[in-house]
């Protein structure tokens, strides 16, 4: 069953009969089992479910960081099956911004250097100028020369968001982005992420266990045991 609402926009993400099976000492383990999902361009979708339900694996497949065992993956109009690892890396760098729970900043690089890294990979002429602008958008212009170890958890996540969004990706993937932050800091970070998503018009796929956070998205998809077990969307209130 395709848990897709009728939509006019092109699909930013289209998954058909997606399976991921990984080896283990006890034998093959099915992580994803026949996922059908379509996400329209510009939408915000939350994927929720218990630990081990397959949420992060789903994000890794959409990011091109995990190859499916079977099924079809199309992101931003590109069929992943026709791309090798270099092709996936180029598509990811140009079109996908990823925000992880654990920040993944390079500890020996300053905040500015961390944000400039993907821009340099894309051969932007003014990578450091764009990186400064991105840090300004997340309120960290005054911290650009600081290393990750000199920043708070909230500041590190802001740098990670700036790095992910500096290339102006069409698709933002966020995997438990507030998992290592306190409640107040997490709320500030999510306000920032949703604000930047709205300003750029990007599509957002949010992995979270927090139902209140998931409700900020236009759609919620629930996973359990590698399968979609529920989907819902915000009701649109008709104009008077």
SSE layout:
Layout: E1 11-22, E2 29-40, E3 44-48, H1 55-62, E4 70-75, E5 78-79, H2 85-95, E6 96-99, H3 111-121, H4 127-137, H5 153-165, E7 171-175, H6 183-200, E8 203-207, H7 211-214, E9 219-224, E10 227-233
Parallel strand pairs: 3-8, 3-9, 6-7, 7-8
Antiparallel strand pairs: 1-2, 1-4, 4-5, 9-10
Helix pairs in contact: 3-4, 3-5, 4-5, 5-6
Question: Can you give a write-up of this model?
Answer:
The structure is a single chain. This protein is of the alpha/beta class. Helices cover 32% and strands 27% of the residues. It is built from 7 helices and 10 strands. The strands form 2 sheets. It has a 6-stranded mixed beta sheet. Strands 2-1-4-5 form a 4-stranded antiparallel beta sheet, with helices on one face. A hairpin with a 6-residue loop joins strand 1 and strand 2 (29-40). Helix 4 (127-137) crosses helix 5. The model is unreliable at 1-7 and 236-240 (pLDDT under 50).
What are the defining features of this structure?
four-stranded antiparallel beta sheet; 240 residues; disordered N terminus; 7 helices; disordered C terminus; 10 strands; alpha/beta
First-to-last CA distance: 35 Å
Largest sheet data: 6 strands, mixed
Number of helices: 7
Model regions low in confidence, pLDDT < 50 over at least 5 residues: 1-7, 236-240
| Helix and strand element order | EEEHEEHEHHHEHEHEE
The residue fraction in helices comes out at 25-40%
What Rg do the Cα atoms give?
Answer: 18 Å
User: What is the approximate shape?
Assistant: globular
- What's the β-strand tally? 10
Strand content: 25-35%
Strand line-up of the largest beta sheet: 6-7-8-3-9-10
Average residue pLDDT: 89
Structural class computed from helices and strand pairing: alpha/beta
